[in-house]
Amino acid sequence: MAVCEILRLGNPKLHQKSEDVEKSELDDIKRVIDDLHDTIIDFRARHNFGRAIAAPQIGVFKRVIYMHIGTSIPIINPRLLDMSDEMIEVWDNCMSFPDLVVKVRRHAGGKIIYRDQDWNQQSLVLGGDLAELLQHECDHLDGILATQRAIDNRSFALKSEMDKLERST
Length: 169
Ligand SMILES: [Zn+2]
Hints:
Blueprint: H1 26-47, E1 52-54, E2 64-69, E3 71-81, E4 87-92, E5 100-107, E6 109-115, E7 121-127, H2 128-141, E8 156-158, H3 159-168
Antiparallel strand pairs: 1-2, 2-3, 3-6, 4-5, 5-8, 6-7
The structure holds zinc ion (ZN).
The site of zinc ion has 5 residues, from helix 2.
């Protein structure tokens, strides 16, 4: 178990597409999940945000997401399904660019199917925060960053400025 370095915006590896996990790799993947856990806890202590992390963000190009929202939910080989036609606009942050937020458009809801770390098929109905979060994380597995989904050229802001605005409203 270890806190890993998080690849940051500008590192071309963040644009690499990740590969499906095979069942035979599960033991290795459990170690990756432990590392993702340690890394997100460390990040959150320093930056005060971070609900999920994708394996490619620590340089492991496998289709694994680790979500930590009260409980720990490892998500292996996810697929988004039945995404709603309704779209929402959100200011997205990312552990790979902690000082920046980007306004993006995401589906308002949908569904995700995936394997858990015992290789059982699982699914989650997605709405609100969870929908937005898991679209962001699945993008990482395809090498896509929120910066590439910016709605227009005014869709970038420093996180510190946005926090100031939020405090004043
Ligand atoms: Zn991210």
